[in-house]
Amino acid sequence: MPVARVEIARSRIDRRAGRRFNESIPVRRPIPAQGLLPMGKKDKKQKKAEEAERKAKAEAADWREDAQVAEPELEKGEGPEAALKRLQDQLIMLQHAYVIHGHRGIVVLEGWDAAGKGGLIRRIGWCLDPRHLRVHSIGAPSQGEKRQHWMQRFWTRVPESGRMAIFDRSWYGRVLVERIEGFATESEWTRAYDEIRAFETTLLDEGIHIVKLLLDITPETQLDRLQSRYDNPEKRWKLTEDDLRNRARWRDYEIAYGEMVERTSLPRAPWQRIDANDKDMARVAAFEAIIKGLGDGVDVSEPTVPPLIRAFFGDPS
What we know:
This protein is α/β, with parallel strands linked by helices. The radius of gyration is 23 Å and the shape is globular. Helix content is 53%, strand content 10%. It has a six-stranded parallel sheet, sandwiched between helices. The termini are far apart. Helix 2 (44-66) crosses helix 11 and helix 3 runs parallel beside helix 12. The chain has a single domain (58-294), classed as P-loop containing nucleotide triphosphate hydrolases (Rossmann fold, 3-Layer(aba) Sandwich), CATH 3.40.50.
């Protein structure tokens, strides 16, 4: 794109976003707290709001301490790229076992905007046979889906025998974005925790493996990545107004993530938090968690070759 057109496009974005853009992505300012009164003489209402803010921060900190953490493990002298190649080879063998033995597996990816979900999915997709892999990028339900039970659109995406499915966002949107944006009533998203546990328990009882990963980054890391997208015309398309709106409600998402982890971590399908501030190490940790979770109880040894095939190739064994 010519320089002049780039500058015009940037100017249009600046005018359209205006003050909201500057406030949503400060160069180096803390994320504004929701619901606080302007600075000045404190009154009872302001003190109450500040107390609620402190309580929310404490609750947000607790879930990170309590959540199961997926730590990357490198072999001696191994860098993250070499580790990723080794793990990709292992994932290929695991997929072969799924196809041969008819296993089914689901990977659920949730996390902050710009946490690296897309890059992780690409690196999984690069090494696997796409005929036996499905990637579902979950957005808002269609008009037809809104007339159904909210879980129905996920039942239809459960993988078939021999396949793996990756959910980029998932049924957890009910207790995250739908809760925060008001798309679901309080009674609806509160009831959803039980519905989600029942849904996943049913899948697990059917022998489907489930791995749930929460990619976690700091507000500062997110700011750097969003700013990088804005500064690069080739990546600017990835930056949306939703990113800015979600960032402005960071505290609300902290609370929602905490409750989600606490109420939907199952013994056979716990939430695993991944520190995604370092993309390379986060991918290693994610691959290890996926291989371990999807490979639990799966025989990945070489399949027995039928006698007729061995005889055809002159193999007497």
